[in-house]
Design brief:
This protein has 612 residues and is mainly beta. It contains 4 helices and 40 strands.
């Protein structure tokens, strides 16, 4: 599609929005990055000049048919590429170009931005609770709570992707085109619960609970759109009831004081927790979503070559299993707390979580046969066979159904140790160390190390949700992308004379994992599927975090009842150059394993707080 008249902005929230002072080097870099984003945001609608998504040395913008190159000073360009690229990318071009191109040889992205979107989501909730306390009943006291909760919500987004063209150098290979569309879904739910805190004597407390939830998913009628995103006057079909869930969640816990003074305590909790409806999991079946076409990457008369158009997917190929279930987690927590000495306490917790019934897509219409692929392409190729799947039926015969695949699950086990020193003798300290393992297979098992671990199906390639290709299940069972074997934190606070306060924060966490992938040809799909060449073992990870932050604070009295606190924060004290992302996980891509998304460098931030 060609969206020449749209405006699209995604405003930055977070670090670029903060005020304060920084070191000269960091301040100069931030100013240059902000200037670059302003140049990008001022590009006119209809711009067709390339925006180098991977480079950091220049930003190309377009206005009135002319391209302007913004080049930061050399000392700025040399600063970590992931940081600068991320900052520039926070504000997106005001106008969509005619297409966006991806060079399969180098990984370079040229053209416009990927897509335009605009929309909103909403939620309304009402709840009520009745409590009753019984002093002496059935051998103890009871604090009983009965409650009811109602909520409804939904979303309505307009999306419009640019034509996405894959090339080998300057030679087009194939592309995708799709008209803009409305996408969204709605939900309603009612929950009823009962809780009882049952105290037996001075040492034992039981926590008992039971919850019932009813929920319903639906999709309302949406306007249909033309190639410029204008409403055509036609509307999509309403889907009043996609699925309905009725679930019951029991919970129980006990707290036992080993000593009358309560210096040593044992805790145990077990419960089932249902996730509830997530509209983004099913809104792809919205009848307002436009068909998606494959074409040869060339244009005739300014539109994708009509002779090469091939339907890739539309709503007739999407369905929801009538027995689709609510995903749930069974959680077990064992806790131990002990006062080591006055003002110093120890807390140890072991957590185990067992999650089932994750949502995932399955092709129940296409026919597949096993095939063997030899991993002999690209960097770190092993030469070993990988069992994959070949599509042997026409692509238009495929029918993708959202269901609860048996292969999808997760397990989490973690041991947390925490020591707390309360404020006394002018100092306070909190330290924690967590050892954990998170494994399984879910909708984010093919995501990058900067992705979000989630139980809902995520996009693997443009227009492909996890599970729509059986090859998505190849080598994806293992550690989850959110797995961090070791996480540690130390916070120290000291009250010095003359109203000075010194604080130290240290954070360590293991780097997130990633796995090598290849887009395999010759498997009968309209486009080459992306397949993990290795299991998610955690052998490949981005570097660990080791971050030190320091705060210095001085309080000043103003009059009788007011105080002003002057603050100075030094963030990333030792200027760690750790990165969180990589350019590409595809072994045959020139950006394979290249570091991206570096942590922000050392910086000084000044502030003030008034208390009165």
């Amino acid at each position: 599609m060609r969206l020449l008249d749209f405006a699209a902005k995604m405003w930055a929230r977070g670090r670029l929005g903060r005020t304060g002072a920084m070191t000269s080097r960091a301040l100069l870099m931030m100013l240059v990055a902000t200037g670059a984003t302003m140049l990008v945001s001022m590009a006119s609608a209809g711009a067709g000049c390339p925006l180098d998504a991977f480079g950091v040395r220049k930003v190309n913008t377009c206005s009135s048919g002319k391209c302007t190159t913004f080049e930061p000073p050399p000392e700025i360009a040399a600063i970590k590429r992931g940081l600068y690229g991320e900052m520039v990318g926070l504000v997106i071009n005001d106008g969509l170009a005619e297409w966006i191109g991806v060079d399969l040889d180098t990984g370079e992205i040229t053209g416009g931005i990927y897509s335009f979107y605009d929309g909103n989501s909403w939620k309304s909730a009402v709840s009520g609770k009745v409590s009753h306390y019984a002093e002496d009943f059935m051998g103890g006291s009871h604090d009983v709570k009965l409650g009811v909760q109602f909520d409804s919500g939904g979303s309505d987004y307009v999306l419009g992707p640019n034509d996405y063209i894959y090339t080998y150098g300057a030679t087009p290979a194939y592309g995708y085109t799709q008209l803009p569309w409305h996408e969204g879904g709605q939900k309603k739910s009612i929950g009823i619960y009962a809780d009882d805190t049952f105290r037996i004597g001075s040492r034992v407390t039981l926590n008992l609970g039971l919850r019932y939830d009813w929920s319903k998913a639906s999709i309302r009628s949406y306007p249909l759109l033309d190639d410029q995103g204008n409403e055509t006057g036609e509307f999509s079909q309403e889907l009043d009831s996609l699925f309905t869930w009725n679930v019951i969640s029991p919970r129980a816990g006990i707290i036992y004081r080993l000593t009358e003074s309560g210096q040593t305590t044992l805790k145990f909790h077990a419960g089932r927790y249902y996730r509830g409806i997530v509209t983004s999991e099913f809104d792809d079946v919205n009848p307002a979503v436009s068909p998606r076409f494959l074409f040869d990457g060339t244009y005739v008369g300014g539109v994708p070559n009509p002779a090469s158009l091939e339907l890739v997917s539309d709503n007739s190929q999407l369905a929801i299993d009538p027995d689709f279930k609510d995903p749930y987690t069974d959680q077990f927590i064992f806790g131990f707390e002990h006062q080591l000495m006055p003002n110093l306490g120890l807390q140890v917790n072991y957590v185990y979580k067992r999650s089932e019934d994750y949502g995932g897509w399955r092709d129940i219409g296409g026919s597949y046969v096993p095939a063997t692929y030899i991993d002999n392409v690209g960097q770190d190729a092993t030469g070993q066979p990988v069992q994959v799947f070949r599509l042997v039926s026409p692509a238009e015969d495929r029918l993708f159904q959202l269901q609860n695949p048996d292969e999808m699950y997760s397990r989490f086990k973690g041991l947390s140790i925490q020591v707390n020193k309360r404020m006394s003798d002018r100092w306070q300290m909190t330290g924690g160390l967590t050892f954990s393992e998170s494994n399984g297979l879910n909708g984010s098992s093919m995501a990058s190390p900067t992705g979000t671990q989630t139980g809902t199906p995520q996009t693997v390639l443009a227009g492909q949700l996890f599970g729509t290709d059986p090859n998505h299940y190849v080598n994806t069972d293992g550690l989850l992308i959110g797995d961090r074997p070791v996480v540690g934190k130390l916070q120290f606070l000291y009250e010095a004379p003359y109203g000075l306060l010194f604080g130290l924060n240290y954070t360590h966490q293991s780097g997130r994992l990633w796995s090598r992938q290849i887009r395999v040809a010759g498997l009968g799909f309209p486009s080459r599927p992306l397949i993990n060449m290795e299991a998610n073992t955690g052998d490949r990870r981005v570097p660990d975090w080791n971050m030190f932050d320091v705060r210095i604070q001085k309080d000043f009295r103003i009059g009788q009842n007011a105080r002003i606190a002057a603050l100075a924060d030094i963030l990333n004290l030792f200027n760690a150059d750790t990165y969180e992302g990589i350019g590409s996980r595809q072994g045959d891509n020139a950006s394979f394993g290249l570091p991206t998304r570096f942590l922000y460098p050392r910086r000084l931030m000044l502030g003030a707080r008034i208390k009165f």
